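Changelog-adjacent note: as of this version, every example in the card shows the full chain rather than a window. The one below runs 352 residues end to end.
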Amino acid sequence: MGSSAEYVFVGCYTGDKGGEGDGITLLRRDPATGELTRLGLAARTPSPSFLAQHPTLPVLYAVNELHEGTITAFAVAPDCSLIPLAVQPTGGADPCHLAVTGDGRHLVVANYSSGSVTVFPLDADGVPGVRSDLLTLTGSGPDAERQEGPHAHQVVPEPNGADVLISDLGSDRVWRSRLDPISGRLGPAEPAVEAKPGTGPRHLVWSGDGALILAGELAANLSWYRPAGGPRLEPRGEVASSTLPGPVHPSEVTVRRDGRFVYVANRGPDTVSAFSWDGETATLIAEVPTGGTWPRHMTLIGDHLYVANERSHNVTIFRVDPETGIPGSQGEPTGEPSPTCLLRWSSSMIRP
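Full-length structure tokens:
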């Protein structure tokens, strides 16, 4: 493998979730053209609906989105084959997101259905041990069907700190909890963001200028928040995530590296909306069809945007104009069964 080789791992829903996948698959990416080539199945594992990478080690982590949730860790070989390292129960139901802390010492996991967050200590090789904590959230929202209780949807550790943000679709909050790096236990969850009732916070991203941008799955919007001098962030604005009629359920939100553009994937209309961002306002500049159905996840790599369309079983490619920020469809979709997450992998990304 050359040092310039790039790969994309794809998490897929398997039969236990009504999906058609078999586990984690592997794509090769041409860094020059952005083209993807499907290489096949990398590992059989049940419904690995979200994937994460260790910051300094060649280790990949997957949630197994089951009623009795688990996580699986894999060593990534130089040829990107996956070698199972460990499977651990999360103690919660339907884990849907996970992330490694900046110091590489802990793995945190969001259990959606049970509304809880699990912490696993990682040893020097990145192998997760028995969980060190299980924090259960509280609260509900006005949507009786979707917000009857807490639903942790994402965990975002501070890159250089001890705090973990937890996006909770059920309570319309983004919680903040401090992770003790020694004990591996989380402190009490305090509200960092109190979104409007019925927002349904799904995924969040930090802009380059310090704003927290939140995709509201139930309100079909983007909202943004800034520090107000205390532990809480204050609302600074919101905008509809799509201009099209009918039900809209935003999934992923991402910011371009230069911080000038924000992108959100919309399930329902099956579009990606592109917004210009000036630090205070997100202004819609384009809404483009994804070329598939039910865009559950997307990732920006260089000038290319890749979209995982769960229900049409494909990954579509867009080239993002470096000046205007508008995505344009490129090439043919890559067939992929029930894709739910895309994770860029490059050997050069692993710090020695």
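Structural remarks: The chain has no helices and 29 strands.
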